[in-house]
Amino acid sequence: MCTFGFGLDDQSLSDWLTDTRNVWEWNRYSFGIVILETYTGQYPYSSPEYQDVNQVQLILQICVHGLRPDTSMLPPALRELVLDCLCVSNTF
């Protein structure tokens, strides 16, 4: 049984990955990231503080611990939209 470190068995993980509600949340999160990248011209999490973090660690920080990119440089209305997109519920 593979749990991927989240306490999910294979069947639960399969259900979680195919749940259309999760696909909607992933699409919404991705839309927020695209807006942020388009406005800033930079990848999120590309600042020096993340240089020594590998992709698995970063994914865990985002999915499990709710890490979100810096949005302070966005105009207020755009920042609110991006933060709404990035506030995906933690379904683990």
What are the defining features of this structure?
disordered N terminus, flat, mainly alpha, single chain, 92 residues
Write the layout of secondary structure elements.
Blueprint: H1 10-18, H2 20-40, H3 55-63, H4 76-86
* Share in β-strands: under 5%
Order of helices and strands: HHHH
Q: Roughly what is the average pLDDT, rounded to an integer?
A: 79
Number of helices: 4
Radius of gyration: 15 Å
Number of structurally distinct domains: 1
* Overall geometry: flat
Which stretches of 5+ consecutive residues score pLDDT under 50?
Answer: 1-9
Helical fraction equals: 40-55%
Largest sheet: none
Instruction: Report the strand count.
Output: 0
Rounded to the nearest angstrom, the distance between the terminal CA atoms is 17 Å
Class derived from helix and strand content:
mainly alpha
Short description:
This protein has 92 residues and is mostly helical. It has helices at residues 10-18, 20-40, 55-63, 76-86.
Describe this structure as you would to a colleague.
- There is one protein chain.
- Helix 2 packs antiparallel against helix 4 (76-86).
- The protein starts with 9 loop residues before the first helix and ends in a 6-residue tail after the last helix.
- The protein has one domain (10-86).
- Residues 1-9 have low confidence and may be disordered.
- The protein is mostly helical and 92 residues long.
- The protein has helices at residues 10-18, 20-40, 55-63, 76-86.
- The protein is flat and about 40 Å long.
- The chain contains four helices and no strands.
